[in-house]
Each structure stands twice: as structure tokens, then as C-alpha cells.
């Protein structure tokens, strides 16, 4: 047994903040309604924790990105740590890398030799923040420094006095403005009264804090060792033991900035910071993606975007989050977990069926809502999306990854992918049918069904594409009115009329139609013929008699796709009676710029699936591809002859092209004979 059976024999729990009797906590009723002051310590706390600390070139690259994001306070180095660190600060100043309004922060321990070197590094800076630190909790006082409380105060004040002296000298030399940031390292484990006493003595020693030139007190949760509600209690407005105790007891509160520096040992740094801010924190120190010692500093991206998702501007710009993430990962030689808030590659992806269904519905309804706002000019385009707390587009992501399909997915997932990729809005029952196909594949492979795999499966299943994939292919067809008196007048269909013909279940009756066509069956082209009240019924009739099967049409739907129409038809063999949910029926899809053709193609697409590998009766009439002379005689190339004969049919595009070709050819011959 390695873990203790009774860990209480080894670990001492945190001590609750002893609120006075009858005290009501203030922080639970507060909200964060504005952004705090941010300090990025990526180049210091982040850097000191790396396996391979950044080169100065990498640090400069990251520094520039921090500026782009909008940080106004950046801790750039621990100048006394090495010549490299020192030189980094110098190069920023000497190469004018620091824009106006941006303060450089450097850190120094409370050791005179190191303070001197640190302040020297800042000569000539416009505005510098000296981050002076020493650990003040009992265990550090006793074990690390072997100091009493008084000695700890003395060590601190000596350091503050030295910082004051050296910075004042530098200000008179170069005009640099200095701010003191005194960090009570291990504050969260320190007796609150002692922390306040120390803070007040620092203020006294500094002696010049004003509301316009405040002293920062950095209250570090150097090690996170209690839950975030405890941190909030520490930070609450209790008059006894708290950060705000610090805030309410420290002298000159209006001349003090309370800064929070939480680490993430318990994985709750973000929560602790948010509660710490509720409880009076003004400023936050942290790193991008939570880099930093051990489990890291608090993640500034998560904090900022949490605020953003509440409608509060963080004043930090993460519009190109994936680029920022890539850069941080590169310079820090680290990876971001796929589930990491906002930045992980899967955080805006839903694999689970019910999530996908909700997101798809959410997107559809939001599109309509936003369109209404655009049209009326009233209301706001508010984000209200199941499962997705903020608009991925705000962070520079597309919606492509929103829905990812696996065996855990439902019908909406595959339907969403088809809509995004092919602009096809599958009818609900067809979604169920296609989902079954996709799920079987996903289960078989055990892998994700990628967008390209789903699209390929869709095209294969419904025989869509330039190259005929199935056993059946409708080469061409013509429709004629089949009533005796309408015989001589050509039946030409406008889209409107065909929409009427094909409406709902496509069974509305108009003038009966006769269909003649050429159907390729397993590579042999046969002539087909059928009649019916609508193009769909006519082609069904033709297929039935040619293929020797009895077909029943079910649901039908169609919609426009750019300049084309996409038709969907559900069919089954009369011998199979499908269940209510559609099991037993198949769907077909047809796309064409001609509405009737899209319907006929949809029927052929469905029948392709229905026949499977079934043996088919031989062709009654095989189509003989005519020789050139036959073609001339039959008028196939002389489409003009057919036109004159009054047989102008509703034809496939290919036949129209042949007719046009015929006309051009005849005109060419005339030209050739005359000249
Ligand atoms: C919580 C934080 O993240 S604070 C930042 C920590 N970051 C770093 O330490 C990175 C850079 N550090 C360094 O390069 C080195 O530690 C240096 C240059 C600062 C000092 O190096 P060294 O002189 O070799 O000392 P070392 O690293 O062993 O530090 C320990 C000594 O400093 C003292 N010390 C540690 N922190 C402080 C402090 N904040 N103020 C005053 N003294 C301190 C210790 O008591 C110890 O003193 P002792 O040797 O008399 O017992
Ligand atoms: C020195 C302080 C700010 C620190 O890094 C910490 O306590 O974690």
C-alpha cells in the first residue's frame, strides 16, 4: 500500500477562515462586470518553469504577441538570474521594443545584490514595475529563512528601502517611472494579520503611495492548497482573516492595487481567481494556457474568455486563438490537451448524437433569428446555442469542426455534414436512413467518420457524381403528353408546373405522361417506356416494366441548390413493407437544373439501391447506338428534323445539346455547299 489508508495522519487540512459569528459572506452575491488589470508573466514565471527556457529570440517573439493581444503590463525577466535574462531586458529598452503605455515588470528576490542588478537592467525604460518578493508564511519563515516575524519584516523593509533608493536615483538619471509591486509570496498560507502588518510597514517604508501612483500588493497563492471558496473567503470582506481583510485593513486602500497570483495545484486556479476578483482583487498575474511552475499559473486565456462569454470585454484580443496557441506551444515546447478550455482542438466539437442534434437545431434557429435582426434592424444578434458557450468564429475558428461523426453520433451529425459540404437538406426520414448507413460503417471501423468519408459514402449510396457508380444509369429520357388530343402538342415543362406535379407525394394528376428513355443496366443500354400522371410515376412505371419489379414510392421532397434542384424520394419494393420509421425503404437523390430530371434521377438512384445485386430480367428492347448514317437518318444529329416533326420533348440536357449540335451541323453543311 503506497497511499495512506488514513491520509489525515499525514496531511493537515486547511483551516477555515474564522468568520465572526453572524457574518454574511459578501462575495457570493457579487459579479465580475469589468476586466481586471492583467499582467502576463509568461516570460518570467512561465519561462522559469520550462524544461528548456526560451531563447531571447523566442522571448521577443512571444513578447510581441503579448503586445498584440493587448497586455499593458508584462513581466519580462528575472534579470539577476543570468546574463541572458539581463540582456533581454536591455534589448527591449535599447531597441525600442516597448510601446508607449506598456509597463515592463521584472522580478527580484529581497536580496540587496540581486536588487541592484535587477534595477540596473531597467535603466532608460519608460515605465517599470519592480516586483520584489519574499515568502512570508510560517513554513518559509521557519524552514527556509529561519527568521522570526520581526526578522522577516526587517528583511522586507531593507529591500523596499533599497529599491526606493535605487529607483529614485535611476528616475533622476533617465526619467524612468517606477512602480513598486511587493509580493507576499505564499500569502495564501500566511496569517492574515501578519500579511496586513507587513503590507502596512511596506507602505510606510515606501512612503509615497498615492491614488495616482499606487503600490501593488501581489497576494500570491504560490501553492494552491485549499478549495477556491476558501480562497474567496480569504479574499472576502470579512474583517478578520482575508485578502480583503488585507484590502480593508491595509492603510491607504485607495493608493493600493490588490493583485492576485494564483497557481493551479488543485486544478482550480481559474475559479480561485474569479472568486478572488469578486472578493476585491484588482489585478491578475498569470500565463497564456496556464504555463508556469508545477501545474502552472492561472490561465489568462480562460479567464479572459470566461469574462467575454458573460458579455464583459476582457480588453484582450484572442481573435486568432489558434495562431496564439500554436506559437505558445512552439516557444514553450509544450502541447495543449485537446479538451483544454477554448484552446483545445476538440472543445468546439460534438461527437454525441443528442449534442449534435441540439447544435444543428441551434444553428438553424439562430440563422433565422439573426436574419430577422438584419432585416428589421432591431434586436441584437445574441448567441444562444446549445452546448457551445461562445461563438467559435469570435476566436477565428470556423464551424467545420462543430459536429464530428463517430459511432456515438446520431442522424443530425451526418445530416449536418452533408448540409455543410453539399448544401443538401436531407428530409428527416432520410436522415435516419443515411445515419444507419454511416453508423454501420463507424461501428465496423471503430473510427471517426470524417467529413470526406461521410460525403464519399453519401455519393456512393445515392449514386451522385459525374461518373455513374451504380448498376442503373438514366442515360436520357423524353416525356410526352399521352392523351390523344394532346398528342401533337409538345409537352414542355416549366419549373413551376413541375413543382406542382411533384408537390408533396408527387401524386397530383395532370395530363397523363408518357416517358421514353434509355437506361443503362449493368453497362447495357436498354430502351424503357412508361406512363403516369407525373414524371415520377412515369419513370417508376418504365422501371417496373423493364426491370420486372414492383415499386412503391413513399415520401418525396425537393429544394433548390444554387441554380439546381435536388429531389429526394423514398421507395420500397411492393413485396417489402417498411416499418413506420422507414426501415425497409431506401432513399434516392437526384440533382439537376431541370426539376423533372432531378426527380427521375432520384427514383433511379433509389431503385439502384433497391435492386442491390438482384438478378434482373433481360432487356425487352436494347438500344442500338446508331452509326453516323443511321444517326443522320434517325435525326439524332439532325435534331432540327425532330423539332420540325413536332416531337419537341421535355428532354435531358444531353439531348438538348444533341439537338443544338444538329442545328449547328446542318448550318455548317449549308455554308459548305454554298461557298
Ligand atoms: C515563487 C517564485 O516563482 S519566485 C521566482 C523564482 N525564480 C527563480 O528562482 C529563477 C531564478 N533564480 C535564480 O537564478 C537563482 O535562484 C538566483 C540567481 C536568484 C539566486 O541563486 P543563488 O544565489 O545560487 O541562491 P539560491 O538559488 O540557492 O537561493 C536560495 C537562497 O536565497 C534566499 N532566498 C530565496 N528567496 C528569497 C527571497 N525572495 N528574498 C531573499 N532571499 C531569498 C534563500 O533563503 C537562500 O538563502 P541561503 O543561501 O542564505 O540559505
Ligand atoms: C514570486 C511570486 C509572484 C510567485 O511567482 C509565486 O508566488 O508563485
Textual characterization of the structure:
- The protein has 675 residues and is α/β, with parallel strands linked by helices.
- It has four domains: 298 residues, TIM Barrel, CATH 3.20.20; 110 residues, no CATH class; 140 residues, Alpha-isopropylmalate synthase LeuA, regulatory domain (Double Stranded RNA Binding Domain, 2-Layer Sandwich), CATH 3.30.160; 47 residues, no CATH class.
- The protein is built from 22 helices and 15 strands.
- The strands form three sheets. Strands 1-8-7-6-5-4-3-2 form an eight-stranded parallel beta sheet.
- Strand 3, helix 4 and strand 4 form a beta-alpha-beta unit.
- It is elongated, with a radius of gyration of 38 Å.
- The chain starts with 36 loop residues before the first strand and ends with a helix.
- The site of 3-methyl-2-oxobutanoic acid has 9 residues, from strand 5 and strand 6.
- Belongs to the alpha-IPM synthase/homocitrate synthase family. LeuA type 2 subfamily.
- This is 2-isopropylmalate synthase.
- GO terms for molecular function: 2-isopropylmalate synthase activity.
Looking at CATH, the homologous superfamily of the largest domain is Aldolase class I
**What is the end-to-end distance?**
106 Å
Number of strands: 15
Our estimate of the beta-strand percent is: 15-25%
CATH architecture designation of the largest domain: Alpha-Beta Barrel
CATH topology tier name of the largest domain: TIM Barrel
Poorly predicted segments = 236-242, 486-509, 633-655
From the helix content, strand content and strand pairing, which structural class follows? alpha/beta
Number of helices: 22
The largest pleated sheet is described as: 8 strands, parallel
The set of bound ligands, ions and cofactors reads: acetyl coenzyme *A, 3-methyl-2-oxobutanoic acid
Task: Give the domain tally.
Answer: 4
What coarse outline follows from CA principal-axis ratios? elongated
Task: Give average pLDDT, whole number.
Answer: 87
Record the strand order, biggest sheet: 1-8-7-6-5-4-3-2
Radius of gyration: 38 Å
CATH class of the largest domain: Alpha Beta
Quaternary structure classification = single chain
Helicity level? 40-55%
Domain Pyruvate carboxyltransferase: 36-322
GO molecular function, one term: 2-isopropylmalate synthase activity
Catalytic activity: 3-methyl-2-oxobutanoate + acetyl-CoA + H2O = (2S)-2-isopropylmalate + CoA + H(+)
Protein name: 2-isopropylmalate synthase
